[in-house]
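Annotated sample (chain length 74).
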Amino acid sequence: MGDRAVAARLKDGRAALDTPQTPFGTEDIDIPAALRAGTSVRRHITKIHHTEADRFDLLAANFRILLEGGLTTP
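Output written by the structure step:
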């Protein structure tokens, strides 16, 4: 999609239906590699469907992981 992709919806967890979402980098999805592949992506969207963690804790952890990895800005 080249420069037309400006947003990415991100989540991590087991690559199976109805499994809990986890912080980025802890399961099957290589979030850093996916973000580096989409060089025009400027917005990162996280929607939590199912998690065993507190939803706000998971959002905070994912944001921290993106910041520390240099993959987003505050």
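Annotation: The chain is about 30% helix and 15% strand.
Annotation: Residues 5 and 18 are 27 Å apart (CA to CA).
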